[in-house]
Amino acid sequence: MPAFAVASGDKPAARGTGEGMKIECLSLGPLGTNCYVVGCEATAKGFIVDAADEPQRILRVIDDNGLQMEAIFQTHGHPDHTAALAEVAAATGADIYLHPAEVAMLDTFAGSLRQMFGDVAWPLAHCTYEEGDVISVGELRVQVLHTPGHTPGSVCLLVDEVLFSGDTLFAGGVGRWDLPGGDWEALARSLKRLATLPDATEALPGHGPASTIRNEKRSNPYLIELSRNA
Ligand SMILES: [Zn+2]
Ligand SMILES: [Zn+2]
Fold first, then answer.
1. Does residue 79 have a cis bond before it (omega within 30 degrees)?
2. CATH 3.40.50.300 at 4-228, yes or no
3. Ligand 1 center to residue 168 CA distance, Å?
4. What percent of the chain stands above pLDDT 70?
5. Which residues surround ligand 2, an ion (CB under 5 A)?
6. Ligand 1 centre from 14 Cα, in Å?
7. Sign (positive or negative) of CA dihedral 227, 212, 143, 222
8. Does the pTM exceed 0.85?
9. Gap from CA of 16 to ligand 1 centroid (Å)
10. 189: buried, middle or exposed (CB in 10 Å: 19+, 13-18, 0-12)?
11. Which tens digits make up the pLDDT trace of 129-161?
12. How does pLDDT run across 54-93, given as a tens digit for each residue?
């Protein structure tokens, strides 16, 4: 399946800063995990959201767009979101970021990554980010929202009016909370918080199609139920 440009990438005028952002979404691996390759149009600096799988496909999109990758932002540490992490980090020199509560999760999957990429040093060098951090990539400002529930250290990343929602919020659904570290009460709080974002905010999830906060508040059964209980 070819990479496709998410519609948001074609609307730089809608950005609060006026600066353009190009977003390409790749659906990768057996679970169809979304990996976003994001570029600042003004500087050609870029970042990845979730180096999910199939590293050669990710690297090709980076190359095709002539991007200099500065960071790989992990929404969380599940293996379907991290299978390409070691190889993409090594090939691009980009810094890996994840929430401190996900570091143990990443280490849990060290064995399989080491087997796949025996020449990659382990543990992977990484930076941590937390609630409220803002990281600049070119002229883009990436704001970190700690949204636990699917996993303890799940984050969503907000760039102007685009929300990379990981496995916290999907179009018409929410992340599982029954896996190790999952917590429905925490997820419910995180979802209520996401529902307070501006309606026009686009949600780009870790699986499946894009949506908006407006659409999800109207049609996502979980958000509807939570708003009734608010
Ligand atoms: Zn997950
Ligand atoms: Zn996932």
1. no
2. no
3. 8
4. 85
5. 80, 167, 206
6. 30
7. positive
8. yes
9. 30
10. middle
11. 999 999 999 999 999 999 999 999 999 999 999
12. 999 999 999 999 999 999 999 999 989 998 998 999 999 9
